[in-house]
Design a protein that fits this description.
The chain has 10 helices and no strands. By secondary structure, it is mainly alpha-helical. The protein has 2 domains: 1-49, Arc Repressor Mutant, subunit A (Orthogonal Bundle); 51-184, Tetracycline Repressor, domain 2 (Orthogonal Bundle).
């Protein structure tokens, strides 16, 4: 793929993600995407045949990043507390430093897509796998829930603090503070 083809594809993904989040997946047409981009519908079809193809493309990119984090989690130090903190910090860096938050916002605004498209099911499955790496299968139910909630604290900071005037860095730091509080209780009495 040439650089201009790659950048066009990335622009299409970004604009579609923006429109899907603003208007909803069902209410957004390929025509609207092409108009916002300033390209013909035929040019859009050259890259993507349908809205589902666009969603699958940005989800596949996100899945690749999640897979890399899952593998990283398996390679991190054996000390569970250190592994959990490092993995969660890597997740936060990836999430806040890329389109991760935009994809999660898209799924938040378009729950039917999450449930109906294979891409949505794959996203859900990867998030569960990542949460499983944060808490070992032999950990208590309490520990597994804490690890999962710590992961979700990072990406739900975009929804929970929706109307706040804070920087991305402040949002990330606050999310990690809360997430670390949850993680640090794993392995303590009652967890």
């Amino acid at each position: 793929m040439s650089e201009s083809t790659g950048s066009t594809r990335a622009r299409i993904q970004a604009v579609a993600l923006e429109l899907f989040t603003e208007q909803g997946y069902e209410k957004t047409s390929l025509r609207e995407i092409s108009e916002r981009l300033g390209v013909t519908k035929a040019a859009l079809y050259y890259h993507f045949k349908s809205k589902d193809d666009i969603v699958n493309s940005f989800v596949e990119d996100r899945l690749g990043r999640l897979d890399a984090l899952i593998e990283l989690g398996k390679e991190l130090p054996v000390d569970a507390a250190t592994r959990r903190r490092e993995l969660l910090s890597c997740y936060a860096e990836e999430f806040f430093g890329s389109t991760g938050h935009s994809v999660m916002r898209f799924f938040d605004q378009n729950q039917t897509v999450l449930k109906s498209l294979p891409a949505g099911q794959m996203m859900r499955e990867r998030m569960i796998r990542l949460a499983t790496v944060l808490a070992a299968p032999e950990d208590s139910a309490n520990a597994q829930l804490r690890a999962t909630l710590a992961l979700f604290a990072v990406h739900s900071s975009w929804f929970a603090l929706r109307d706040r005037e804070i920087t991305d860095s402040e949002r990330r730091d606050l999310a990690l503070e809360i997430a670390h509080e949850l993680l640090d209780r794993i392995g303590t009495a009652g967890s």
